[in-house]
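User: Sequence in, structure out. Go.
Assistant: Echoing your sequence, followed by the structure tokens.
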Amino acid sequence: MGRVGVAFSAGLNASEIVECAQLAESLGYDSVWMAEGHGGDQFAVLSAVAAQTSRVQLGTCISSVFVRSAPTIAMSAAVVDQLSGGRFILGLGSSHKVQVEPEHGLPYGKPVTRVRETAEVVRRLLRDGQVSFQGETVTIENYELWFQPLRPSLPIYFSAVFPKMMGVCGEEADGVIMVFTTLDVGAEVRQHIAAGAERAGRDPGAVEVTSLIPTAVADDPSDAFDALRPGVAMYKGFFPRYNRMAVDQGFGEEAAAIAEAWARGDREAAARAVSDAHIDSVCIAGTPERCQERIAAYHASGIDLPLIAPMAAGPNAKGMVQATIRACAPQ
């Protein structure tokens, strides 16, 4: 089996995530990733994980370029990289207008440009210790680091959902972070990466392809599907970008039903509208044996690094996540 990572987003507190990360390292996982959203400060959590692990790579999936300034992102990345002994990967993304503006009170616009300009500021600041930058979305008059980063450069991955951003990854990112991918997307994303790499004179093979895959394991497959249904409903109901993904993946009627239920505040109806076929298409769900088969299928489809993303909530969330980590461990 190829490499496997694990990503955390919600349901666990910071100490529980550290415990789960230690378990993942002991079982041979390649990397541990931390989303943010409402799940805790990702850089703080990863710093704690860095102190309690020795081998696994650590990454953000993703850090929003709208809710932190570019210098703040650079400093945070450099700190985790130093604490981990050079094991850090910075995953950047634009997040979503429906989060950035109402939840953070910040303006949202030109997301692709913002990601590119933020990455450029981060690279310059880590390399030179100082940066001045005048862009379309980011302006830094002058910023200096008052410490020496462990590495003058570190891997930067961009999140991508649609072809335009996949091409941008080919032009200038070290990797692409996708989510809710079907098994037929690997070849397509590599074509877009190759087109972008050709424009920039880069080797497309140098861009790692990763994907966040919501995951639930149970002896009874129906229990695993039910565990994932509310989370899928939230993503497809609340975020227009992911709803559009569902349409493009052939679940148009379902996507409309989820969005309609979510808009009227009926979370249970939104979850009921998520079909088993939809979950099976973009998630990993079922018995341990079935989950291992799905991970292998994602590798075969062209995904270099599947990132299992356990979805769990409630008083036994940590136990559910640990069971998922054990079941999906590299073999």
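User: And one key feature?
Assistant: The longest strand covers residues 208-217.
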